[in-house]
Predict the structure.
Amino acid sequence: MNTWSLALRNVWRNTRRTSVTMMAIALSCAGLMLFGGYISWAHLASEVHTVMISGHLQLFKEGFLEKGSGNPAGYAISNYDELRDLLLLDPVLASKLDLVTGQLIVQGIVNNSAKKTSATFAGFGCFASDIERIIRWNPYDLTEARDLAANSHLFAAKPELDDTDPEGITLGEGLARVLEVKPDELKAKERPSVELMSLPPAGGLPNMVSGTVRQTSIRALEQIDNHLVVMPIKLANELVFPGEPLHVTSLQILLKRTADIPAVQQRIAELNASHQLGIEQRTCTELNPNNVRSLGMMDMFFVFAFCIVSVVLVFTIYNTMMMGIVERTREIGAIRAMGVTRGGIVTMFVQEGIVIGLIGGTLGVALGLFAAWCINHAMILYTPPYVNVQAKLEVFCARPPTIIIASFLSCFFIALIASFFPARRASRMGIAEALRH
Amino acid sequence: MQGRGYKRKQFLYSGLREPYRLIMPTSSSPPLVQIFEAHKDYALGRRTVHALRGLTLEIPRGGFVVMQGPSGSGKTTLLNLIGCIDHPTSGRVLVAGQDTSLLSDAELSGFRARKLGFVFQNFNLIPVLSASENIEYPLRLIGVPLAEARKRAKAMLEEMNLREEADQRPSELSGGQCQRVAIGRALVTQPDLVIADEPTANLDSATGKMIINIMHEMRDRLGTTFLISTHDPEVAVLAEQRWNLRDGILIDP
C-alpha cells in the first residue's frame, strides 16, 4: 500500500460523487477538445481559403495597393517573364516556391448584345492551369466545398478556364443573371458570346474583345460574384494592352509551406532592393483581413469558453473535495495524531485530485476523440462567415495533437489547483477539533 | 518491548492537595510524562472555559493508568496535551523528556509517529484499508520499508488474534475486532506511550473487558505505558493507578 494506492481507493469511497466529478472533467476535456478541434479546422480552412483566393504572396508594382484600384492596368508590371524567372531561379527561393504565376486585373463593361444587356465588370485574366492549381491547393486534405453534394449546383464540373480555349471566359453567377446568360444556354453547342470593353491605361477609346461564356462561377463572396469575369490572361492582355507583350498587375506566388512566408518575403525584399524591381508584396492574410479577424473572434470565443469551463470545473472539483474532507474530518484528525504532517495531508488530498484529474482527463480524451469521429463522419453542413457555399463541419482534435495534450493538461491542472485549496484547508484543521468532529 | 528493562511498578499518591499533585516516587528511570502547572482555556463565545486548572503530574514508564471523570471534566483535554495534539494555555508538558512546546508542527508529527500510539473511542480506522494495511500505515509513516512493515503488521495481527481478518476492511469487522486492529496499529511502532480515549465506550461490556485485558497484557509483554480514559468502572478496576478528574483538576480517586 503506497500513497497513490490509498488515493485511488479514497476517491472511490463515494462512487456516485466521484463519477459525477470525473464525468464533469471528462465532458469539459472533451468539450475543449472539440471546440479546440473546430478552431484548428477553422484556422486550416481559413489558410486554405485565403491561399485559394490570393496565393501565399502577391507582388504588385509600387503604388498599386494605394492607387491602383481605380486604374489597375496603369500599375501593370510589364516585365512579367523576367521577374518570374528571377524568382524561380533564385537559389534561396527555388526550394520554397511551388508556383509563380501572373494575374492581370481588368475592369470595364461587359455587353451581351444578344440580350441587349450590359454591366460593369471587375475581373482578371490568368493562366488556366495555374489558377486551377491555386484553387485546388489543399495540403491538409480538408473536405473541399466543391466536392460536397450540397454545393454541386454551385460548382461546374469543368474548370473555369482552359488553355485550349483562348476565348472561353467564366462569369460570376450574379453577373450572368444580369446579362441574362441562362444555364441552359451554357449547355448548348454554341456558347453565348459577350463583348468586353475596357479603357486603356493611358486613356483614349476603349478596347474591346469578345469572349464566349464557358460557365458561371461562385467565388464565395457575393459582391464579387455580381461583377466577376475570369478570362485567359492573353485575352485580358489583348483587352487592356492590345498588341503589347504580356502584362500583369500581380504575381501570385504559391509556396510549398505556408510557414515559409516570412523567409520568402525577406528574400524578395532583398531582391527588390538589389535589383531595383520597384515592387511591393502582400501576404494572403494581409490581402484577406476579414478571415484573420473572424479567426481572432473565434479564438476569443474559445478563450471565453475555456474560462467558463475552468471556473465551473474548479467549483465542481472543489466542492467534491470539500465534501470528502468534511466527511473525513475525524479520520484526518486520527491520521494527524498518528504522525501524518500537514504536508502529508495536503499531499494525500492533492494526490486524490490528481487521480480524479487523470482518470477524468483520460476519459475526456477518449470521449472527445469519439465525438470528433462522430462529427467528422456525420456530414454536418453549415455556411461559414464570408462565403456563400456550404462547408462540412469538421473538428481536428489531433491536428495538431497539442489540442489533445492541452485539453488534457488543462483539466488535469484545474483538478490539481481545485484540490489544493481544500487540501490545504484540511491540513490546517486542529487535530483535537478534528477528532471531536 | 520486553527487552527494554521494563519493571512493574507500584504507584503511590503523595497527597490530596488542591490542585491534586501526582508524583510517582518509586520509578528509577525518569518519568515518561511530566506536566507542570498546565492550564488549558477555551473560548466559548464570550465566555472562557477553564478545561484544565494548573495540573501537575508525572507518569512513569510502563504504567497502566486509568483516568476517570464525568463529561467535561477535562479528560480528553489532558489526553490531547499528553498526546501532543494540543498545547496548554500555560504550563509545560514533557513527554519522553521532550518539552513539546519547543517542537514545530512537523517535528511534533514525527514525535507522535515514533513515541505515541492512539486508540480512539470510534476506532478511527481508515475504512479503505484492510486490517493488515491499517496496522502497516503508521510503520510506513516512520519510513519502515514495505516488506518489513507487512511482516510486522502480520505479526501484530497474530498477537491480536486477527490473522483470519487480515484482509478484511473495517466495515467487515465487528466493533471488538476493529478495536483490536486499532490497538495493533497503536502498538506496532513500539511507542513509549499508548493513549486510549474511551476505548470501550462503543463496545459491549464483555468486549470492552476483553479489550482492556488485551491492553493490559500488551503492557505486560511489551512494556508500553498505557493511559486510558474511561467512564466504565469495570475498566477502572483493572487499572494499577486511577486518576479522578473533575472540573480540570485531579481529585482523590
In short: Chain B touches chain A at residues 76-77, 80, 83, 85-86, 105-106, 109-114, 116, 118, 120, 122, 124, 126-129, 133, 136-138, 140-142, 146, 185 (CB under 8 Å). Confidence is low (pLDDT under 50) at residues 1-27 of chain B.
